[in-house]
Amino acid sequence: MSGDNKFLGLIYLSPFIIGLLVFTALPFLASLYLSFTNYNLMNEPVFTGLQNYIRLFTNDRTFRKSLWVTLIYVFTTVPLKLVFALFMAVILNYKLKFINVFRTAYYVPSILGGSIAIAVLWRYIFADVGLVNMGLALIGFEPVNWFGDPTNALFTITLLRLWQFGSAMVIFLAALQSIDKTLYEAASIDGAGKWTSFVYITLPLITPVIFFNLIMQMVQAFQEFNGPYIITQGGPLKSTYLLPIYIYDEAFKRFDMGYASAIAWVLFLIIMALTLIAFWSSRHWVYYAGDKRS
Amino acid sequence: MTDHILSQNTPAARDIDIVRSRETRRHRFNAALRYALLTAVGLLMLYPLIWLVGASFKTNSEIFSNPGFWPENPTLDGYIKGWKTSTPYSFGTFFFNTMWIVIPKVIGTAISCTAVAYGFARFDFPFKKVLFSALIATLLLPNVVTRIPQYLIFRDLGWLDSYLPLWVPSALAGDAFFVFMLVQFLRAIPRDMEEAARVDGATTWQTLIFIVVPLLMPALISVCLFQFMWTMNDFLGPLIYISSVDKYPISLALKLSIDTTEAFEWNRVLAMSVLSLAPALAVFFLAQKYFIDGISSGGIKG
Fold it and tell me: Given this model, what pLDDT does residue A94 score?
């Protein structure tokens, strides 16, 4: 069906091509250019060379703090979420009655996702006199200062995102269900226990999906905004002031578009570097069964 | 293997029986353990939401003294006063605004992503590989890089404080995830029917509309549901582009309500949170299969 017109496919693609050029490619390059300028929306952008970047790395304690907080957030949230999602997927993969009820229930928090109502709810649940502290009091624990204490605040945001492990779990579950059961039977005849089967059969076979979830969750975590913006406003003591909030404040509150673009580019380069490392390392640990790529 | 065991002498066979009954007992124990774990995690997952619903009927003082679900003195106060909001507009206005953002966006997404996915899955053309790589790259590209220039483009177009910045990129297949999902789905559908239609003289447009779209329906429903949900939940988009309160969607209205009623009107905020989650929850429970199929087919075949 492609024979009649070589360019017919491109006509179907035209919305995508226009969108790609106007709303992705052009802004991508423009943001790189802006990062070398001083631009406050009023006057024309003034080219200032590396000045924004120099200021970022030598003279901006907020940036250093924000970068540090972002890295801690991503490197705790993503692995915890993946491990938990995989653990729950393994349990939900057994044939039990009402299993679909559980699968659905676990997915509900994820589907409500980054909604403001959920962030608001979280703020009340973890308030000083909120639900969690009331629960702790019932079992005889001291109340915890979840948001007021800089050492806990980021962790409480992490808990919110761990609560939403559902979409990673659903993807794991689909992968687990596509594994050929005879592999496990063969292994158990050879005397392999559950744990051995999991490590030597399940894990290698789902590495493509672990990789997919890793990349997706990482790119998402680096861009976390709603949770800390609503729940803690980046505080206390900037302990939840993730880079996307800093970028938003610089761009849309202080209208320092050039500086905000420079921070955005640093964030982008970090995400890209980590993505490339993941892709590069995937050659060594991601296993594609047969000729998967068609 | 069974034959081999049966040919053994009786004491061994008795051992087998013992092992078997031990196995059944272990299976039962394992099942009980799993149910216990599943229920415990399930409660952790759902209790915050259940509590939210109960709390929305409590008085302000009771919200922070009663961790249970049932309100001691149930009151509709939160709903009545919360609905009025602290602005000249009722929550109904914000609901209407949200729908006015969501519905055009979903329609634009469905149409544009279907056409683009069809183009990718069924045609050969110059630069196909490059364009598909670009699609994957957009999937991975953090929005944070393009946000500022996009804002400047919309400002120059005079579209600030309108819904156009929220609609237009989606109508141009801007949500790469959906295109990707539909391409994966189309690749799994055999082309026989489309080829038969083409032999009978149908144009590619007719083939798309009368044959591909019906086959694609389950995936397309997933796309629409996800876009519905994500747009309902979107906060940053409206935060950047919408400045007049009368155009606020629910997400901005809720943010406004926690800013203005800080520290005393909790039940209003929680009641409006319940209302803002209600459409999403209703849609999810009516169509949960499509969500689960959509997310797993989007992710697994990558």
Answer: 83
